[in-house]
TrEMBL record:
Record protein name field: Uncharacterized protein
UniProt cross-references to InterPro entries, sorted A to Z: PDDEXK_9
Pfam family, one: PDDEXK_9
Length: 178
């Protein structure tokens, strides 16, 4: 799941009302537990409704990302958030770069062995997004303007940090971190 997409998840109303403990759709679970709410209702044709779900507020988004970080491989999330906050507050780009490299280096290797997830940009973007969103900072993903599109923008204390994610398969393993 691409975690930034949770704030603009489209679904049909029937999926939100269906509740089968053994087979519940992710959007239904997040909706019924209050992590997502209906942000927009569209009726593209008579009798067919499409709901756009999103976080009810930043506190809920932060809370969910706190819960997701251990699942994404951040075992010591509170310490990692404190370190991230320290580098952002000091506008220490070298420290921020080292922190983010260490963040990925700390993800369990078994997640990538015999698993194609490492080939997908969305995986890396989800880890970044959840790490910053759990801190409660303003994060914008896939931000498009007349200049182009940036994968992720972090707005912290009047400073904008721009992130572009690329997975390059032709390079030797680990080259993306150099």
């Amino acid at each position: 799941m691409f975690t930034p997409a949770l704030d603009r998840w489209e679904t049909e109303p029937e999926l939100l009302g269906r509740f089968d403990v053994d087979d519940i759709a992710t959007e239904a679970l997040l909706f019924q537990t209050g992590y997502l709410t209906v942000k927009h209702i569209e009726e593209p044709m008579l009798g067919y409704r499409l709901y756009t779900l999103g976080f009810p507020n930043q506190e809920v988004e932060t809370s969910l990302n706190h819960a997701l970080l251990p699942v994404l491989g951040l075992e010591n999330a509170p310490r990692e958030r404190k370190t991230l906050f320290t580098y952002l507050r000091a506008h220490d780009l070298a420290g921020l770069e080292a922190h983010l490299k260490a963040l990925y280096a700390g993800l369990p290797h078994d997640w990538y062995r015999n698993n194609p997830i490492a080939r997908y940009e969305g995986h890396y973007a989800s880890v970044f997004y959840s790490h910053f969103a759990a801190l409660g900072v303003n994060v914008t993903v896939e931000d498009a303007s007349h200049h182009g599109k940036v994968d992720m923008t972090v707005d912290f204390a009047g400073h904008l940090y721009l992130f572009e994610f690329k997975v390059v398969e032709q390079l030797p393993e680990g080259s993306a971190l150099e």
